[in-house]
Amino acid sequence: MSNVSDARSDIRSDLSGHPDASEMRARYDKMMGGRDVALVDAPVFLVGLYCAVSPWVLHFTASQPALVTHNLVMGIAIAVLALGFTAMPERMYGLSWAMCAIGAWIIVSTWVVGSSPDAGVVLNNIIVGGLTVLLGLVCAGAAMRSTRT
Question: Are 66 and 120 in contact (CB under 8 A)?
C-alpha cells in the first residue's frame, strides 16, 4: 500500500516552488481585488428578503396595509443592491451609503408610513433597519478601504 500523506506533501512543496507561483498569486489578488466583503453579500440579500416577507411572517397585512407595501418594496430594493454587490462589486459598493439611508428610513418609516403600529411591527422594523445600516456601513468601509489602496 502506498503512503498518501507523503504524496500530498510533495505536491504542495512542488507547487510552492513553482516558478510562476508569484505571478499566479498576483493574478489571483488582482481578480479578487475589491472583494473584501464578499461574505457580507449573502446577509444583505437575506435581510432584504426577510424585510420583503416580514408582513406575512408577522401577520400585519390586515392592520398595516401601507407598511406591507413599504416593507415589500424596501426589501426588494435591499435584495437588488445585494445582487448588484455580488455581480459588479467595483461599481456597486459606492451605493453602500444608500443602503445605510434605506436602513435608517426603514426604522423611521414605522411611524411615518404605519398607523399606530404595535410593538411587534416596531421591533421588526427597528431590527431590520438596524441590520441594514450595519451591513451598509461594513460595505461602505470596505469600499473606502479598497479605494485607498
Answer: no
47 Cβ contact list (under 8 Å, min separation 6): 78, 128, 131, 132, 135
| φ, ψ of residue 33 in degrees (nearest 5) | -60, 135
Distance between CA 38 and CA 85 in Å, rounded? 8
- Taking a C-beta distance cutoff of 8 angstroms, is the pair 60, 148 a contact? no
Distance CA(97)–CA(100), nearest Å, equals 5
Write out pLDDT tens, residues 85-96.
888 877 787 888
Give the pLDDT confidence of 27-46 residue by residue, as tens digits.
Answer: 666 655 545 556 788 999 99
